[in-house]
Amino acid sequence: MNIASEWMLLFLAFFIPLQLPSLLASTDTGYISIDCGAEEAYTDSDSNIWYQTDSGFVETGKNHKLPSGYSFDQPQMSKQLNTLRSFPDGVRNCYTLTPKQGKNNKYLVRAFFAYRNYDLKHTPPSFDVYLGVNHWNTIEFGDLYMYFPIEVTHFALSDTISVCLVNIGKGVPFISSLELWLLTDSTYRTSSSFPLDILTRSTFSMSEDTLFVRFEDDVYDRVWFNRIVGNSKKISTSATIDSYGIENTNKLPSQVLKTAIQSLSLNSSLEIYFNNHTDSSHVYYINLYFFEFDQRVTTQKRIVDVTFNDKSILTDPFTTQHLKLVTIVQNITQADHLRISIKATPESDLPAMINAFEVYRVLSLTNSATYQEDADTILKIKHIYGIPIINWQGDPCIPNHFAWEELTCSSDGTPRIISLNLSSRGLTGPIDVSFSRFSELQSLDLSYNKLTGEVPEFLAQLSNLKFLLERNPGLCLARSCKTKKNLVPLIASIAASVAVLVMIVLTFLMIRRIKKKNGVSKKDWQEKSDKYVFSLRDVNRITNNFKTKIGKGGFGEVYLGTMQDGRDVAVKLLSQTSRQGDREFHSEVNLLTIVHHKNLVSFVGYCDEGDVKALIYEYMDQGNLQGLLSGRNPNVLKWSERLQIAVDVALGM
Ligand SMILES: *[C@@H]1O[C@H](CO)[C@@H](O)[C@H](O)[C@H]1NC(C)=O
Questions:
Q1: 226, 34 in Cβ contact below 8 A?
Q2: pTM to 2 decimal places
């Protein structure tokens, strides 16, 4: 990694801190600076930047300090680099940044990495860094001492930005510092909003004691590497340059504007080599900066021509103007090396010059993040229930191989969460309304938890949702939680087939409950139960005009029927003398369309036409429970099985 070696050079050079104006660490400046591994927050005495600890940004990892003999004692940055946070557990560990300016803003995200033998293993790791769901960089260290930043511009489409460290089987990932700065819209603007990953940021002739520009001279605390170019002469101005008072979209610091290199003669050129390997999968850009501070241009001309790898890139050479910044942005194609050649034209009175340049590559956004509302909702649920699953970090669905195990996602287009299994996760408290915000959820398993309170109505509004709530002893069915105590004696009324038996219990429960309360308004239940509605003609056809009677329950007569798809069903006809009235019928329908439980026979639909009220259930063909309990039956149930049935019935209730 060549950029790494450049950065290393930077740090190998001796430098003295730049004197910085004192600055209030305002909360409105739009930055987040995290000194990873730090035990407490502090204001950096060199930069006046407020550094926070990891807490609140990442939930996993371990803090470390660089060992003596490896730690930094240079004033600038040392404090941030002397601690780090490692991630020995899990494949993907993520920091979540939530800048208060939120989405639809452009940010600069920068991370520093300094291994420096923190684990005393003398083996620097290699790992991947993701920006959200997309690969950003692969971190590699040439030696124990190397350290460097990576930096990217990022247009945020959501309010949170995650930076994830991914273990690729080559050692434990870690990070030394992580920063985020709010950029203005015009800064680093290209034709697309794709992230720009900075490979090199160079200036040429800052004096030895200002090798290093930081906040607030650089408003984004960018690091400008001092590059040495042969056959050149350093030039600078002592005049005060107001970097805000000129057109300066990329906000070059005044330190960078005030220094430049110039070619040794009118007809010699400045040659800048850049050896970072480019590859065909990325688009690369170069920014060249020319700021004319030479008074002589008021009477003489400086006309500059630039070529890249011997190809002229400007239609015309340009003439510099006093105290004006010229920025040339050029995209380049794949090349093993890059040579920038800057030359004065024959008409020029003054030699060629340049102040600074940057090379960056455009990251391709190959993955699209999970549908925002789904991602927000699962995070909310994680927080509400305090779900301690280590891999619940970063995007829930993307990349596929990091998708959270407890859920499944749709695979075409924007990923959607389609199933969620939180069985046996020790969830407590009520079923939160957030679950209703998963609009594409098809399956929700909350069984074997300690959920309490009512089973909420909203679950029924998710029309495609199948959900499992069994083994949550504290849960009760809507509207009935207060009357729970009355239910137990009803188990005694078990009769007929297993299926019918359970239904009867439920039916009786409903009577008890509803006597004390208002039923569901008719409108309510009609809206959500439409797919369960059958006409009288349907029922006649299904039962072959009520041809085969298979039983009689508290509700009325039960008939055998066959659906169009061949499924056998049991159709229960509400008898005119049944104690259940209209309202109870609707309540039962309402309940059955909401409640799905493996111990309850599944509800197929209902008919409510004129005087005819019928309920249609899946048909259980194993005969009735009485038969199975009787000693005359060759397959008579064992005691353990009988006990299990009693337990299952109770659970169904
Ligand atoms: C949920 O996960 C458990 C195991 O953790 C499994 O037994 C159960 O069948 C799963 N539920 C669904 C609906 O797949």
A1: no
A2: 0.69
